Amino acid sequence: MVSADRPPDPPAHGHVLLAPGRFPGALTAAQVARHLAAGLRRARPGVPLVELPVADGGDGTVEAAVAAGWRRIEVEVCGPTGRPVTARLAVRDRTALVELAEASGLRRLPGGKPRPLTASSLGTGQLVAHALRLGARRIVLGLGGGACTDGGAGLVQGLGGRLLDALGKELPPGGAALRSLHALDLRALPDLSGVEVVVACDSAGPLLGRGGAAAVDGPPRGASRDEVRVLDAGLRRWADLAEAASRRAARDLPGAGAAGGVGFAALAFLGATIEPGAALMLDLLDLSGRARGAHLVVTGEGTLDTRSLRGTAPIGVARAAARAGAPVIAVAGRRGLTGERLRKARIQAVYALDDIEPDAERRVRRAGPLLEQLTVAIADEWLPAPPRR
């Protein structure tokens, strides 16, 4: 465990808020929260616990909203390769939360095999269409964890648009096919007047070029150097026709390149605004309200380091909780923040799995039980046992 300057002892009442992010490759945010709760219930059975897993718009965003009380809706849509998948969205009042990774994510690829040239965001468009049919007047679209680099062309198709080649035939899915795009038929797109669309993402890149969607997102999705050039050419053709059809110049806007260019389609066709994912999600989950009056807030993520300071959900949790007057500690698989950086993040202490398990493979395999083991030290240092009578 590494501590910053410890604050005065917290009051002897109030709840413990468990608001962790995910441990990629090991546990979802909800699973992290459940393991922390299981350990603390054994160590301090009388302490009230509130589980609030957090996300930043990527994998686990819908799961986090459902854990916070949003209604879960399941819909069968097309996965990134066209195979049907059962995807979820979350609904509260007239707001719908749609997660790209649910329908078009890397985890939806059959056998995990990348399809950089042909993977499509079609299913995400189908989720948005379903949210509209449910009567949503505000749609929050979380971008992250996607498998496609299609500029959001599939998203437009999922909403009813048609992408046609020179012979008037529908284009096959994926970014590579966009090189043959000749015309758009948008007559079946839904009326979005009166509907607010907000994109939750942290990407500020444009659609095209060296810092664009193909160059940045293509290689992690399995694209070779030559395939990146193919994808960028397709996205350029897509941008020319999409901007002409939508009458919105969106290719160079911050966030247009997000999630393989899905951000571009949201900007051009949905009139979306883009907000930092972590801050937006914490607001939707009412993190500040749930932290008010807390005895302790526990957050965390797989690797807590300087990259976290760029705006990950756990850092947002720490700052919001500190503003609410609650002490904040973190759990992590690996820790890279100490001293002044830890203090600036408003985190009083970090408990890391690699402190008790140096083997990386075992840390991943046994992440849940190791988290429960860490709660013993957390309880001893932050949740004093009541005196015996």
Quickly name the level 1 CATH class of the largest domain. Alpha Beta
Task: State the share of residues found in helices, binned by percent.
Answer: 25-40%
Q: What would you give as the CATH superfamily of the largest domain? A: Glycerate kinase, domain 2
In CATH, the topology of the largest domain is named: Glycerate kinase, domain 2
Number of strands: 14
Task: Give the N-to-C terminal Cα separation.
Answer: 31 Å
Label the CATH architecture of the largest domain: Alpha-Beta Complex
Order of helices and strands: EEHEHEEEHHEHEEEHHHEHHEHEHEHH
Task: Give an overview of the whole structure.
By secondary structure, this protein is of the alpha/beta class. The chain has two domains: about 1-55 and about 285-380, 3-Layer(aba) Sandwich (Rossmann fold); about 60-280, Glycerate kinase, domain 2. About 35% of the residues lie in helices and about 20% in strands. It contains 14 helices and 14 strands. The chain has helices at about 30-45, 60-65, 100-105, 120-135, 155-160, 215, 225-245, 260-270, 275-285, 285-290, 315-325, 340-345, 360-365, 365-380; strands spanning about 1-5, 15-20, 50, 70-80, 85-90, 95-100, 140, 160-165, 185, 195-200, 275, 295-305, 330-335, 350. The chain has a six-stranded mixed β-sheet with strand order 1-14-13-12-2-3. It has a six-stranded mixed β-sheet with strand order 4-5-6-7-10-11, sandwiched between helices. A two-stranded antiparallel ribbon has the order 8-9. β13 (about 330-335), α12 (about 340-345) and β14 form a beta-alpha-beta unit. α1 (about 30-45) crosses α14 (about 365-380). The chain is elongated, with a radius of gyration of 22 Å. The two termini are about 30 Å apart. The model is unreliable at about 5-10 (pLDDT under 50). One of its GO terms (molecular function) is glycerate kinase activity. It holds the Pfam family Gly_kinase. Keywords: Kinase, Transferase. It comes from Actinomadura physcomitrii. One of its GO terms (biological process) is organic acid phosphorylation.
